[in-house]
Amino acid sequence: MSANLYGDTTSSPNKDHIISVIVRDEPRVLTRITSMFARRGFNIKSLSVGTTENAGVSRMTIVVGGDDNILQQAIRQLEKLIDVIKVIDHREEKFVDRELVLVKVTITPETRVEVRHIAEDFRARIVDVGRYALMFEVTGDEGKITAFIEQMRPFGIIETMRTGRVALSRGSNADIPTQVYTGGESKSLEPVLGDVEI
Amino acid sequence: MNGAQALWQTLINHNITTVFGYPGGAVIPLYDALTGFPEMRHILVRHEQGASHAAEGWAKSTGEVGVCLATSGPGATNLVTGLADAMMDSVPIVAITGNVPRALIGTDAFQEADITGITMPITKHNYLVRSANDLPRILAEAIRLARSGRPGPVLVDIPKDVQLEAFTGEIPAPHARPEMPAPAQEAIEVALSALRKAQRPILMVGGGAMDASEEIIAFAKAWNIPVITTLMGLGIFPAGDPLWLGMPGMHGSVAANRAITNADVLVGIGLRFDDRVTGKVSRFAKNATIIHVDIDAAEISKLVHAHIPVRGDAAKAARAFTAQPTFLENKEWHAKLQEWKERYVRHPVWSAGYAIKKIVDQLSPDDVLSTDVGQHQMLAAQLARFQKPRKWLTSGGLGTMGFGFPAAIGSALGVPGVRSVVIAGDGGFQMTAQELATLTKYRIPVKIAVINNSFLGMVRQWQELFHENRYSEVWLGDSNPDFIKLADAYGIHAVRATNSEEMESAIEAWLNHDGPSLLEAVVPNEHGVFPMVPAGASLEEMVETHEEAKQKQ
Ligand SMILES: Cc1ncc(C[n+]2csc(CCOP(=O)(O)OP(=O)(O)O)c2C)c(N)n1
């Protein structure tokens, strides 16, 4: 039983779910997707969008907060949008996910070396060196990034910027067959959903 | 050929030859091109909201796509209510809007509104056309989308210069009617095995099963399953049939609501378990195994958990259910239902309910009945006896006052030769009453009944029951127009009835008048609509009379 108007309780616990959404690269696609989430009260924890190897097709990685029912509703509502070619629920298969973060940490002559050491342990790259601060670039899964930030926190974090997570399924298969999106730009309006087994 | 001409030609190729619209600066090229297409009938409404509801009325009564047209900015925003209404009730309409020339988009130009942005959450999809060469293809896709899968509204926004730009391509042939997905056989098997064991089964059908009427009737009869039709599903199963239990929900019948609470298997087809239907969700059909058939996967387990989900077309599912029937005798269950069926409200001799009963009793099974929103709508839903689908047009999901009258215009034109009758309240009628001019202009023979209780009746009822009779801002009696004179001002025949004797003869004069006519029934205002499930309560907490409702407070 899902949460609803009358305050009935939910049975499954809230947690984060990671999904990929393959979309037609049309104007307003991002708005369409985020406004669907907003209108239905679903929570986007993180969102990253980029073009793909195929013209006219973009790929989003969305982290959705909420219980299983919310995830399922979000996926089904996404699948209804005309611009959505496919939604991949990463619970269904093994996947790799990464996030990139920039972290600016305060340093003093006393802490400088220690901070650098910790960064090396995390394979963080130094991308800016200042008298009173170092900026690191860290890539990794969520656990690694969180651990890095926690290690740096005692030294004084000035600011951070995270890109949001990106994910791809493991293995040699593409998440969607290429025939779905070959055929050039004008094809982007063709009814991709109906024609292909996906 | 320019973009505007290509638009009309595309519509005609799709067999769409009636458009409800209103001109303006940003669509003048469309209107200019219209003069070259005499086979296209344009109905000039008096407010774009009327155009959108008329397109809905067309679509709901014919099952085909309805089309409305408006200019940019204020014209386009006036369509918004109709689009939201069509979205909620899954009505296939295509709205065409003009926009400022491409170069001016985003500059706050005169009469510019971001209508694709505005309508994004209330359309199935929308398009901003960026070149004349894209226009026919996009329009064809819009028409296909509107009626495919779960139907709904689609908007096509066309900048003025795109309408004037040369079109050099070929107008595409219409898309084939999309094949509806059949349900998975495994799901059907699971459902059938649950059904075979049922002692107290019910079948609940909603508007999504509108084109599955024959299959639903065959299914119910073969299995001997009692049928409940939702507000949107009225007519899919013939009212008055011994298996019919009426409508469920807030103003549903005693039999339907009790049946839901007591059922052990509930088969829902083409319905979305709206909160007006379920009451408190956690107590809805709490004893039942729920089999939910819907074409829209997102509806399954959205509100009510489906123990047995069946995704697919309503007609195909009903046919699959009927393939190996088991006649379920269940004598006790049927006896119990019969007992509950006896419990319906009797209306006092002069009241809105009485007047509406008199009207619906005069209708033939072929007549199309539209309503507006309010007490009269619920009374008509309770009292009318629909024998066929697509004869009942009402705004269910959005509850849009102003819907009924223009929707009746759409149906009168969509199914010519079939009588189109609308029952409206004195409040809602005034929201789109200017369409009287549309009736006059085209001599559209719509029969309008205004149930004048001098109040925003439904709101008054809630104030009475839940706000200790504080009738805040619902009195219309001091300022209503003289409805007879109003009709007269537009050149429309009108009659008035103020008591039961006058009603008989007034109905006759009204329905027998050749052409459009209006009947005003002046009724007392103190009557409420019962039975009623108070908002937020469960179906078991239904009250059957005013006194009972007051006591529960
Ligand atoms: C556009 C719109 N505004 C407000 C409402 C809220 N509302 C629902 S019923 C109702 C009263 C309708 O009064 P009337 O048209 O006189 O019909 P009656 O209930 O008296 O039959 C109102 C104001 C609505 N449904 N739609």
Please give a structural write-up.
The complex is a heterodimer of chains A (198) and B (553). With 198 residues, chain A is an alpha+beta fold. Chain A is built from five helices and nine strands; from the N terminus they run βαββαββαββαββα. The longest helix of chain A has 13 residues, at 68-80. Chain A is elongated and about 55 Å long. Chain A starts with 14 loop residues before the first strand and ends with a helix. Chain B has 553 residues and is α/β, with parallel strands linked by helices. In chain B, 37% of the residues lie in helices and 15% in strands. Chain B contains 23 helices and 18 strands. Chain B has a six-stranded parallel sheet with strand order 2-1-3-4-6-5, sandwiched between helices. Chain B is globular. The chains are: A alpha+beta (198), B alpha/beta (553). The A-B interface holds A 1-2, 4-6, 8, 27-28, 31-32, 35-36, 39, 69, 72-73, 76-77, 79-83, 189, 191, 194 and B 116-117, 120-121, 124-125, 128, 134, 137-138, 141, 144-145, 178, 275, 280-282, 296-298, 300-303, 305, 536. Bound molecules: thiamine diphosphate. Thiamine diphosphate is lined by residues 372-376, 399-402, 425-428, 451, 453, 455-459 of chain B.
Q: What structural class should be given to the helix and strand makeup of chain A?
A: alpha+beta
Largest interface (CB within 8 Å) is between: A-B, 26 and 27 residues
Instruction: Say what oligomer this is.
Output: heterodimer
Listing every helix as H and every strand as E from the N terminus to the C terminus, the arrangement of chain A reads EHEEHEEHEEHEEH
Provide the residue-averaged pLDDT of chain A.
84
